[in-house]
Structure formats: C-alpha cells, structure tokens
C-alpha cells in the first residue's frame, strides 16, 4: 500500500524560512533509513504558497487563484510517498522522523493513496491499460 505523509505548513515555512543545516542533516539521515528499508518512493519540500496557484472548478468554468493563501493550517509544506504494509507501519515510521520545524509544533497527515483495485468495475480494463502505459512513460522519464 502506498501512503502520502503531508507535512503541514507553518508561518515559518510560508514566510520562506529555510531549515537549518542540523535539520537538513537529520532529515537526510531519516530519509536514508526509509530508502534503505525500501519504504520511501518520493519525498520533497514545497515552496511557500505565494509561489503557487489554485484552480477552482465550477462545472465548465475555471478560475485561477494566485497565492499566497491565508489558511496556513490547510497548506502543505512537503511530503513523503511511502510504501508500507499498513497505516500502522507508516505511522511508526513517521513517529521516528525529525520534527519538520525546529521551532515549535508541526503536524504530518498520513493518508492512503488509491490503487487501481480500489475503483472497482468502473475502472475498466481499457482504463487500467491506459494507466499502466502512463506509469511506464513516467518511469522512463525519471
């Protein structure tokens, strides 16, 4: 099973404050453990929302909303994509992670990623084949 662990943004991350060398070292060491265990599929930090945009969909209408976004608690500052046997395993790994923000509290939300079998009959053989082709093309580019 794949899980995404989303690091919630803070005022500091939204202000563009960069992590210290100490935190970068601790996080690099933790990520190395994840990689060696075959658990980490991807992981990245994200720029502040002032450098981003949102697209609101209403029927056929599209509205672009430029950052920054005001509700820091709803924003993501980074993520890990993990392959684990269960949510409990993902939780155990993330409990070992360094605090993503040295100065105070931070929060990481873990959610399971949908797999093809989760979609049932609506995900037809043709759609499964299309997804497999897309995944193969993405893998070839990286």
Produce a short descriptive summary:
The chain has 142 residues and is an alpha+beta fold.
Tell me about this structure:
The protein is an alpha+beta fold. It has helices spanning 11-14, 21-36, 87-95, 125-141, and strands spanning 2-8, 40-45, 53-58, 61-66, 76-83, 108-112. Strands 2-5-1-6 form a four-stranded antiparallel β-sheet. The model has no long low-confidence stretch (mean pLDDT 94).
For the residues shown, what is the average pLDDT? 94
Q: How many distinct helices?
A: 4
Overall SS class: alpha+beta
Rg on CA atoms, Å: 18 Å
Assign an overall shape: globular
Which strand order spans the largest sheet, edge to edge or round the barrel? 2-5-1-6
**How far apart lie the N and C ends?**
22 Å
Our estimate of the beta-strand percent is 25-35%
- The level of helicity is 25-40%
- How many DSSP E strands? 6
H/E topology pattern: EHHEEEEHEH
Which spans of ≥5 residues are poorly predicted at pLDDT below 50? none
Sheet of most strands: 4 strands, antiparallel
Descriptors:
single chain, 142 residues, alpha+beta, 4-stranded antiparallel β-sheet
List the helices and strands and how they pair.
Elements: E1 2-8, H1 11-14, H2 21-36, E2 40-45, E3 53-58, E4 61-66, E5 76-83, H3 87-95, E6 108-112, H4 125-141
Antiparallel strand pairs: 1-5, 1-6, 2-5, 3-4
